[in-house]
Amino acid sequence: MARITASVYTSHVPAIGAAMDLGKTQEPYWQKVFAGYDFSRQWLKDNKPDVVFLVYNDHATAFSLELIPTFAIGTAAQFKVADEGWGPRPVPDVVGAPDLASHIAHSVIQQDFDLTIVNKMDVDHGLTVPLSLMCGQPREWPFKVIPFAVNVVQYPVPSGMRCFRLGQAIRKAIESYDEDLNVQIWGTGGMSHQLQGPRAGLINKEWDNRFLDRLIEDPEGLASVPHIEYVQEAGSEGIELVMWLIARGAMADVAGGRKPTVKHRFYHVPASNTAVGHLILENNL
Ligand code: DHB
Ligand code: FE
Asked: Cis ω on the peptide bond leading into residue 156 (within 30° of 0)?
């Protein structure tokens, strides 16, 4: 059977990708950000998954205002790195897991969640920056990836509770797949940031850290926080954080199992216009 062994949470700041691609990681500003991922890169080598189910958001790159799926699952064998305006990032294309992705689509749709099935899609910084942060700069990504895109760009966006429940359905789907696979689920985006308007530059350290505390200890309670609180407290782009609840909902304790172990926690301000948050939770199976 396929097993979810761990969940990983991380911000996806595009300037982090640019810092890596342009060889600036040793600059003092960026050193402090990347230091938070030293542990994680070793941990990922020691706990290499076969597949990562990667929850992220597209930034009007693959999807535009012409077509806005709330939840989209990538079922292709390969996903190209998107050109976001200055050429694709010099990172490997993403190798998918079409059989497992199709199984998850089937199971989750049968559990009453409507997914958009995507057989061709370029992936933007929302997906590639978390991979770069966790894997460094390999010639090929060391595992297969199922991209799972969530609309947090154009209102209406899904609620935290819907994301949390969807995570539970994804867990059931993965754990009913009849092949011994080590699967990790990643929740990405956030933390507090606002890129536009009079409040551009907003960061809320207290709210972010409370979010991390509650994500660990009280995910269901956290799931009932309404989207307006994210916007008010964490800024217009802070709403990206609802995606973390999908990954958290897929952990064993939510289905009656044991509490996860917090392997790593990191929080840093600033990186570009956002706070960087990062967590690794390991299931105790
Ligand atoms: C920034 C952060 C994001 O999440 C994003 O998608 C684009 C830009 C920023 O901090 O600049
Ligand atoms: Fe973003």
From this structure: yes
